[in-house]
Amino acid sequence: GANDAVVHTSGSVTYVSGGVGAESIGQLSALSRDFNLKLVFALKSGDYVSDVRVAIADSAGKQLLDTTSEGPWFLAKLPAGNYQIVATFAGNAEKRTIAVGAEKLRTIDFRWGSE
Length: 115
Prior knowledge:
By secondary structure, this protein is mainly beta. Helix content is 9%, strand content 52%. The protein is built from one helix and nine strands, in the order E-E-H-E-E-E-E-E-E-E. The protein has a five-stranded mixed sheet with strand order 1-2-6-3-9, covered by helices on one side. Strands 5-4-7-8 form a four-stranded antiparallel sheet, with no helix packed on it. A hairpin with a 2-residue loop joins strand 1 and strand 2 (13-18).
């Protein structure tokens, strides 16, 4: 259908985003075994958010990806290593430094909202 998740490749990174609606969540859940990083975007109130800018850099600071997530779920397949992820929603950037393994899916939650 029109809402089919499209898997993109940028350099060494493969990624897909979505998660709006049950159909999309089902698709991404099925796809997730092919990825090793899952980002989840939400407000502290628990509401999911979309249109989150996602920038991923490697441990040397080289930018690997700069894109906008079309939904609250963002799956990426990265070479094993350490990465810095910056997720920006409504002008507020959240940073995470993470280690990704080759096989296991690592889930990182980003939450925005009033402290």
